[in-house]
Amino acid sequence: MAKDKQPSRPIERPRGGPAKSVAELVPGVGQAAFKRFGFIQSSVVSRWREIVGEKYADVSAPESIRFPQGKKSDGTLTLVVERAFGPMMQHVQPVIMERVNRFFGYPAVARITLKTGDVRRAQPRPAKPDLRPVPAELGDSLREIADPELRAVLTSLAQGVANAPSGLPILGKVR
């Protein structure tokens, strides 16, 4: 009797697989959304203030970058600009174009189009200061940190850990 050949099936990956961190998953999701709206790099949106400076970032926001078919240069950057600042932004277009191209590292943008609209920025709410003292054993190591912003964040973290109820598990600890 001849052996029956079974149709070959593609090898299935076991369900679940290794766990992935959220940091690995989120950029891929965001990247697809940004590409849909014409951004190759999402960092153009997230670092807009850094790219063009405080003065221009307060009154403008990037909406999209459109490139000619099959190219990744000579694109058109569309900016949303507050109504009263349209004329000023027309005059500084070469400056903005130069800064965006410097950010990309090549002549990605050849033209800028302006649209009037509301540039809304989420204003960060200042955190309420925790007035409870930091335990002495945590405070000594924090005094050696030179960066004041990093020191403040780590101090806040130390206060949270020190003041956490003992019944709550600390992240990263395995029971």
Pick out its properties.
single chain, 175 residues, alpha+beta, GMP Synthetase, Chain A, domain 3, three-stranded mixed beta sheet, 39% helix
The percentage of residues in β strands lies in 5-15%
**Content-based structural category:** alpha+beta
Tell me the Rg in angstroms: 26 Å
Q: In the residues, how many domains can be counted?
A: 2
Classified by CATH, the class of the largest domain is Alpha Beta
Q: Sheet bearing the most strands, described?
A: 3 strands, mixed
CATH topology of the largest domain: GMP Synthetase, Chain A, domain 3
Low-confidence stretches: none
Biggest sheet, spatial arrangement of strands: 1-2-3
Oligomer: single chain
The helicity comes to: 25-40%
How many DSSP helices?
8
Mean of pLDDT = 75
DSSP, total strands: 3
Could you tell me how far the N terminus lies from the C terminus, measured between alpha carbons in angstroms? 58 Å
* Order of secondary-structure elements: HHHHEEHHEHH
CATH architecture level-2 label of the largest domain:
2-Layer Sandwich
From the spread of the alpha carbons, the general shape counts as: flat
